[in-house]
TrEMBL record, chain A:
Source organism per UniProt: Streptomyces noboritoensis
UniProt keyword list: Membrane, Transmembrane, Transmembrane helix
PANTHER family linked to this entry: ABC TRANSPORTER PERMEASE PROTEIN-RELATED, PROTEIN TRIGALACTOSYLDIACYLGLYCEROL 1, CHLOROPLASTIC
Entry keyword annotation includes Transmembrane helix: yes
Protein name in the entry: MlaE family ABC transporter permease
Transmembrane regions listed in the UniProt entry: 56-78, 110-130, 207-226, 246-265
Length: 273, 349
């Protein structure tokens, strides 16, 4: 994977140096190149099972608890907010439905994306960045081992699978939290909650959520790896790279989420009452 | 036997800054070459260009028919398996023990059983004097040990080409001498082509068969060790003697003002100091003779007419010594070279 790791240099000595204005485009190009390489190398033997399992375990262990702790209050806020608003229309019985629409479709992929980019992405970026400045990755390349295949592919796949499973967890915990606040705290009826839940929810809501989570995992993994593989000089460069990786991932994920939501709402008809 | 590394017209620039240009040289198969150069002349960049870690702007590096600069990534990765590269601080994987570090290339590239990997790794650790440290993490050992572990890792696949980036930096003089001996022994055992990048004069004078020097964005010279060691070229001469007087300044080349100012302090370039040619290290007794020595003699004999007079005299003296060693060898056990009749081909001159 020489394309993203080599510094920008003029093609020939004495030729015009590359335009600085185009740097963002160049970076974007490299990011996509890395993404494509990751996809390509995913299918190249040997697959790094051990690295994958270790990374999966690591990412899962650092994201599960924060995910639940973020989701419970989030579910509560939605339940309380929607509950108090909907009460004014006299339609408390629909809190369950509202909860599922917001949580399963929107909130859980977003919570997953925040955790994945903030927790998993930053860890991956810092790890790869530190290895890059210590020349470990170059050493690996010299030994004829592609760092992308050996390190990046298992990490990206691990983030994607953790994202997939985490999304399920967040949906369940969020719904339970919503149930608790709607039924116990706000004295709604359990029957109404469940009825409106199953009236509005459809399987594709969960599927789009899972699809988003997987895609977010891929994007977060690739962006973190890209920043980690190209830190700009020294330990401070690694710190900056981690910072940028988290910010970029947030921006990209929120944008992708918007596009996917718009597409989903257009393509899949909402379930009528 | 090692393989040739042919470098043709290599040029590298970072942005507008040219690092070196038009470097053309051939690392002869199985021989040890040293690349000298003041700090910051792009010696490390040169090494990285040879293994294809950095893409040069012009020129090519031919290794076993593969151009390390412009070939397809797949071919370059394949060709890299011929290389062993020792990085400046070892570049060990911080999260793995020394054993796992050294076993890494074996596990990645061979289908050897764990017991066999263990045997090879232990053997290599023995060679570099690290036996017993295999459970340690790179963070827990000294810089010298890290360097030796890096060397063991570079050697584990029996590379045809070994590149060492400043093997002496951070080592004391004693360890440096041991390392010099180790490099010679490794060359004896593997018969690999070696390139050592350094600015250590002791290594430069006693280890290599060939020497080159990078200065001021150019390859100043490259040739048999005698050529540089007897050279009267101001840059080479100044560098080998470690003097301040001469064209090399604190940062790259001195300008006229600096030279004038130094002259006013009495710092002027005198006539070149005559250096006695330090003998090249011999393999540790018990090892067979270096096969490269004989090949190099044959090669240098061909070049003899093109060499400058001083270098020519040194080479001829070397060839004469060999003849004497050969005749004396029957009785005199003090001569440490193994009997020369074990060399394949050509007798003594």
């Amino acid at each position: 994977m020489s394309a993203p790791s080599e510094p920008a240099a003029g093609k020939a000595v004495g030729a015009r140096p590359p335009l600085r204005v185009l740097n963002p485009l160049r970076e974007t190009g490299r990011l996509f190149a890395l993404g494509w390489t990751v996809v390509r190398l995913t299918f190249r033997r040997p697959f790094q099972v051990r690295e994958f399992v270790e990374q999966f375990w690591f990412i899962a262990s650092v994201t599960i608890l924060p995910a639940m702790l973020v989701t419970i209050p989030f579910g509560a806020v939605i339940a309380l907010q929607v509950g108090s608003l909907i009460q004014q229309f006299g339609a408390q019985s629909f809190t369950g439905g509202a909860s599922v629409l917001v949580l399963v479709q929107q909130a859980s992929p977003l919570i997953v994306s925040l955790l994945i980019s903030g927790v998993a992405g930053s860890a991956i970026c810092a790890d790869l960045g530190a290895r890059t400045i210590r020349e470990e990755l170059e050493a690996m390349e010299v030994m004829g081992v592609s760092p992308v295949q050996r390190l990046v592919v298992p990490r990206v796949l691990a983030v994607m699978s953790v994202g997939l499973l985490l999304n399920g967890l967040v949906s369940v915990v969020g719904t339970l939290g919503g149930y608790f606040f709607a039924v116990i705290v706000q004295h709604g009826t359990p029957g109404a909650y469940l009825a409106s839940f199953s009236a509005l929810a459809q399987l594709s809501d969960l599927l789009i959520g899972e699809l988003k989570a997987v895609l977010f995992g891929f994007i977060a993994g690739v962006v973190a790896a890209h920043r980690g593989l190209n830190p700009k000089g020294g330990p401070k460069g690694v710190g900056d790279a981690v910072n940028q990786s988290v910010v970029f991932t947030f921006l990209i994920l929120f944008f992708v989420n918007m596009v996917l939501t718009a597409l989903y709402l257009q393509l899949v008809p909402a379930k009528g009452l | 036997m090692g393989i040739d590394v042919v470098v043709e017209g290599l040029t590298k620039a970072f942005g507008r800054q040219t690092i070196w240009q038009d470097v053309t040289l051939t690392l002869p198969a199985g021989e040890i070459s040293v690349m000298l150069g003041p700090s910051g002349t792009g010696k490390t960049v040169f090494l990285k260009a040879i293994v294809g870690l950095l893409r040069p702007d012009r020129g090519r590096v031919l290794v076993d028919g593969v151009d390390m600069a412009n070939s397809r990534e797949k071919d370059i990765y394949e060709a890299r398996k011929l290389f062993g590269l020792l990085f400046q601080d070892g570049a060990l994987f911080g999260s793995m023990s020394l054993f796992d570090n050294i076993a890494f290339p074996l596990r990645e590239h061979t289908r050897k059983k764990e017991s066999e990997i263990r045997r090879i790794v232990m053997e290599r650790m023995e060679v570099v004097g690290l036996a017993g440290a295999e459970r340690k993490l790179p963070g827990e050992i000294s810089g010298g040990m890290r360097k030796r572990a890096g060397l063991a890792r570079a050697l584990v696949l029996d590379p045809q080409i070994i590149l060492c980036d400043e093997p002496d930096s951070g080592l004391d003089p004693v360890r440096t001498s041991y390392l010099s001996q180790l490099l010679i022994d490794i060359n004896t055992q593997l018969d690999a082509t070696m390139l050592i990048v350094t600015h250590n004069i002791d290594i430069a004078t006693t280890v290599p068969d060939n020497m080159g020097m990078l200065f001021c964005r150019e390859l100043v010279a490259f040739g048999p060790r005698e050529v540089l060691l007897t050279s009267e070229e101001p840059v080479v001469e100044q560098f080998l003697n470690g003097r301040r007087a001469g064209p090399i300044g604190m940062s790259e080349e001195k300008d006229r003002a600096t030279i004038a100012e130094e002259a006013s302090h009495g710092l002027v370039v005198g006539p070149p100091t005559r250096r006695t040619l330090a003998p090249q290290l011999k393999p540790t007794p018990g090892l067979p003779a270096r096969r490269a020595v004989q090949r190099r003699r044959a090669r240098v004999r061909e070049l003899l007419d093109e060499l400058p007079p001083a270098a020519r005299a040194a080479v001829e003296a070397d060839l004469r010594d060999t003849a004497e060693a050969y005749t004396a060898n029957g009785a005199d056990t003090l001569v440490r070279t193994r009997p020369l009749h074990t060399y394949e081909g050509g007798g003594p001159a």
